[in-house]
Amino acid sequence: MSFKPKTLDFGKSPYTGLTRESWIEAAEYLVEGIFQNIKDFNDPVIMPRQDTKITYPHLNQPKEIQAVEYQAEIFEGLARSLFVAAPLIHDDPKRKICGYDLREYYKNQILRCCTKGDANYVGDYESLQEGTGHKDPFRAFQQTVETCALVICLWESKEEIWDTYTKEEKDRIAIFLSDFAHANTVPQNWRLFNMLDLAFLHMEGYEVDKEIMLDHAQAILQYYAGDGWYRDGHSFDYYSAWAFNVYAPLWNIWYGYENEPFIAKQFEENSNKLMETYADYFDRDGFTNMWGRSNIYRNAATSAFGANLYLNNSKVDPGVARRVCSGSLLQFMTRDDFLYEGIPTLGFYGQFSPLVQGYSCAESPFWLGKAFLCLHLPAEHPFWTATEKNGTWDTLKPKEVKQTVLDGPALCFSNHEANGETILRTGKIVKTKEDKHGMWNYSKLSFNTKYPWEAEPVFTKEDGKLVSGELDSQQYVLKDTTSGEIQRANVTFWSGEKDDVLYRRQFFNYNLETECHWMQALNLADFTVPYGIMRVDKIRLFKRPISLSLGAYGFPDNGTKINVVEQGNAKAIILKGTDHTGKERQLAMTIYDGWSELNYVRSTGTNPDSQNSIIVYAYTERTKQYGGNEPYILISQVITKESHEDFTDDEIFPIKEVIYEDTNKVGAYGTTIITMKDGSSKKINYEQMEAKMML
Predict the structure, then answer these.
(1) Residues linked to residue 674 through DSSP beta bridges, in sequence order
(2) Distances from the Cα of 677 to the Cαs of 198, 438, 526, 653, in angstroms?
(3) Residue 466 has what pLDDT?
(4) What span, in angstroms and rounded, lies between the C-alpha atoms of 627 and 613?
(5) Model pTM?
(6) How far is CA 10 from CA 16, 27, 389, in A?
(7) Which pLDDT belongs to residue 462?
(8) Distance separating alpha carbons of residues 38 and 688, to the nearest angstrom
């Protein structure tokens, strides 16, 4: 079953057809999925659980820990589902879903979760510490996250729920909220949870500690990296959009504008700065890229658009904002694998365990309900009345590529008119060498809106060269052929763009205690072509012999035609097939200098779009410990399109000539010049990188 909107208006919304009524229908669709699993009015929002190995409540924990995690699950289910339900309650206080009065159900459940002794009580800070068997004043609990969701939803449904409680009931809820608001939190985006709890209480006339509020707020400002992006912990990801740039605007209108105008002004400027480029982060269809942690939150990535419109001086174009929000909503909700027993799966599309994290539970995906914050904007708001516009995509010339480079968060995203895709390249990444999951989320060489990242392929030794563990999509994998050790690029430094070439450096098995010259590395240099990315990377090794592989994007295999073509010293493999929904897909990987082989493997269970997949890959070896005559430069290209119309020969083999300055013509030093058949050229010099490397 997939979502099919009943109300469409292609006059007002020429790209998606979706209107405010369509969004209400989408919210009802999600809430109906919840309530088909609630058997009794007094039951909490505990949903069917497809995964029992990764997500919480963790079955291998002691019973007292499971009990605490069960309390967290009750609260998470309540608060996150309310993200979707609250706008419906505000829109129609008498709305019933599956026979339940929506307002009365949530009004009852909210009060019960805050009431000690109730079966659905979710615990206060002190009792949770006791329940886990130790007291740690610096401990933070999942409940802190959900208190923030709760206050947002109480604000959205203020007249319908909050204002209908008695004073005693309000006080009971306020005491519960205040306990977490004033308690310890995690030193990253979590500070905003406490800030919104405090702001809501202050707004409703309760006393709060303004010193705590100020300390959290100043810290949030310190996480700002520029271009609208905040650093969350050590990472840049969607938390900058669906946390920092959602909570900060709400904090402004609840508290900041009146009580902390300097900080509020900074938050407003940061949100508006994000809006200058954020729409270009999505593709021509409004698709969200699968990147970073918590991908199960999906189109929550669009919630920053709606939040910006609550600011006093919002700068986002409402027609562009609605187009992106609606496109991303359709990306997920129209798929037949989106739901499991009525509930969004723990995946990007269908259930996909490789991206699931242990801090999630069955109800966690309802964080995507943040996207429905736009429904709290009244029907006459420009977000709903403006005609959809497709921003950059309406202005690109045929086969033009628009590239945006943001040095602060180390993000480079390119909009490709030829195929309508947006490709993201990232930097400033630090993961442990054991953290494959983190590397999939952050360290792929590029992330494509139509080709979500593939986990490590699982395959047999088909070609006599590679076995499982020696290949990853859009990642280099290095093998020490003396010891057999497999190494992955777990750290990516950013060196920025020069002359349309993006420079980065990846270290394999990076360890902060090890001097950099004693680690294997690659200098990365890549640039856009109309349908994808051309790579001109340089080996930076201290130890050989080694083998090296590089996978293309994972390709959904639902019946794929494979073709191998060659031209001069170049070789390409072309795949034509369909994704899970039946839409045509095509991928071509081409290798030039530095590579010895091009092949492919088939995998199962590692692609978020389809059960089966194919990964085309390049392969090479370096045998001499110090080999000055072996090629240093690795040239490859991956291009894609959403049709089976053949790529031209010049698109598959776009290079006319490669010129090396070094004596042996292997790219050992100097500038490498790539002359393209279309008359353009790129000059690549890695020696400029050292002075600019940023982490």
Answers:
(1) 658, 682
(2) 61, 38, 17, 9
(3) 87
(4) 37
(5) 0.97
(6) 7, 20, 12
(7) 61
(8) 61
Contact present, 363 and 76 (Cβ < 8 Å):
yes
* 3-state SS string for 395-445: CCCCCCEEEEEECCCCEEEEEECCCCEEEEEECCEECCCCCHHHHHHHCCC
132 contacts 194 by C-beta, under 8 angstroms: no
Q: Are 519 and 509 within 8 A, CB to CB?
A: yes
Type and span of the H or E element at 211: helix 210-222
State the residue for tokens 């057999």.
484
Contacts 24+ apart (CB under 8 A), 651-657: 651/529, 651/530, 651/531, 651/588, 652/565, 652/567, 652/572, 652/574, 652/588, 652/590, 653/567, 653/568, 653/570, 653/572, 653/590, 653/677, 654/529, 654/534, 654/678, 655/534, 655/570, 655/592
What is the Cα–Cα distance from 169 to 154, expressed in whole angstroms? 13
Q: Characterize the bridge pairing of strands 421-426 and 447-448.
A: antiparallel
Q: Rounded distance, CA 158 to CA 171, Å?
A: 15
Kindly state the tokens that stand for 599.
Answer: 């092949």
Q: Would you say 25 and 88 are in contact if contact means Cβ atoms under 8 Å apart?
A: no
Q: What is the mean pLDDT of the chain?
A: 96
Separation CA 225–CA 290 (nearest Å): 22
Task: Give the model confidence (pLDDT) of 497-534 as tens digits.
Answer: 999 999 999 999 998 778 778 899 999 999 999 999 99
Token pair in block for residue 168:
């005693």
- How large is the average pLDDT for residues 440-459? 97
Degrees to nearest 5, angle at CA 122 with 68 and 363: 80
One-letter amino acid identity for 264?
A
Token pair listed for 296:
């199960």
Amino acid 552 reads A
Q: Are 354 and 292 in contact (CB under 8 A)?
A: no
> What is the torsion angle, in degrees rounded to the nearest 10, for the CA atoms of residue 162, residue 166, residue 171 and residue 172?
-90
Distance CA 631, CA 616 (A): 22
Strands in 287-408 per DSSP E: 339-340, 343-344, 401-406
Q: Looking at the DSSP assignment, which residues form a beta bridge with residue 414? A: 403, 423
* Cα–Cα distance measured from residue 258 to residue 196, given in angstroms and rounded to the nearest whole number: 14
Helix (H, G, I), strand (E, B) or coil at 614: strand
Q: Identify each DSSP E strand in 499-592 by its residue range.
A: 501-508, 521-529, 532-540, 546-551, 555-556, 561-567, 570-578, 584-591
Amino acid at 604: T
Q: How far apart are CA 684 and CA 682, in angstroms?
A: 6
Helix (H, G, I), strand (E, B) or coil at 384: helix
Distance from C-alpha of 539 to C-alpha of 632, rounded to nearest angstrom: 5
Residues contacting 341, CB < 8 A, separation 6+: 33, 37, 47, 48
How far apart, in whole angstroms, are the C-alpha atoms of residue 512 and residue 533?
A: 31
* CB atoms near residue 379 (< 10 Å): 12
Place of tokens 């905003």: 192
- pLDDT tens digits, 391-437: 999 999 999 999 999 999 999 999 999 999 999 999 999 999 999 99
- CA dist 344 and 358 (Å) reads 17
